[in-house]
């Protein structure tokens, strides 16, 4: 089951001037089984580009773009804390063309991480490690990965903290915040509101009064690099309860990059858990911890007391928005929820990078993200 309680919040001033917008459809039907993809062209190479709201920045294996000089660009690295994969390469500014509806296209010019080397590095510590995967605790050496098929695009926000492993993840490398032309025509100054709407159908880039209709918005706090770029915002706030008990105030991430949920409570809050054999045949541990079936999780955005939106589900009931599984994290940091991508079966999400707002709209509402 799920329920949505929407309280409409007015958009920030200036939205009425915003008229430029374009819809970029997903290539395949939205599914829990894979990261959604859009069609993109870089340097004449057509790429089915994964769209990940849980990271920021584009990663392309060097062999895919052979015309880029191996000495070009600024050294950079990127680490995914969920998959434990490290990418090392160079940031090179390149035009990216995204295929829209009926032959339309949008162009962004942003730094792209050209990946020269990559490892799966379970023991990598983003707080201290940088451009190399160090030996493991027992002297293990990480196996280097093939870079010839690496394509990935992060469009999230608030992901540039040291512990997130993405120190270069600022708005300047987010393609969806840096669209400068539609159908080859430069966007007139002030007509495109930097931001996007994501649904199970695709991405609406550029916010307008019409396409944001019926969204329940809440304000975001300034991000780490807000002083250098006013489009940099911290992660959204939320509060959750377990079996209708406790209040766990922290941050929220709607992550199209994963189908599972990660949840972390306050230190004195108990989350019912079970230990089961690892269902992943390629997993690196024999047993894994999961939130116990029958557990009710209720999430309020930005709070439970006065939510702009709230939803709940019972683990194991297989409701539409339930994640594939729920992984309980140790309370070493403040409360946190990564919803996983399945939440989009119940809600579209919107990020306003100009006004510093994040919002939800229940699926089935008459305001359609593909309508301007």
3D architecture notes:
By secondary structure, this protein is mainly β. A seven-stranded mixed sheet has the order 20-19-14-15-22-16-21, with no helix packed on it. The protein has a six-stranded antiparallel sheet with strand order 1-12-11-23-24-13, with no helix packed on it. It has a six-stranded mixed barrel with strand order 2-3-8-4-7-6. Residues 1-11 and 366-372 have low confidence and may be disordered. The protein is built from no helices and 24 strands. It has two domains: 1-14 and 209-372, Cathepsin D, subunit A, domain 1; 22-191, Beta Barrel (Cathepsin D, subunit A, domain 1), CATH 2.40.70. Helices cover 0% and strands 40% of the residues.
Give keywords.
Peptidase A1 domain-containing protein; disordered N terminus; 372 residues; Cathepsin D, subunit A, domain 1; disordered C terminus; seven-stranded mixed β-sheet
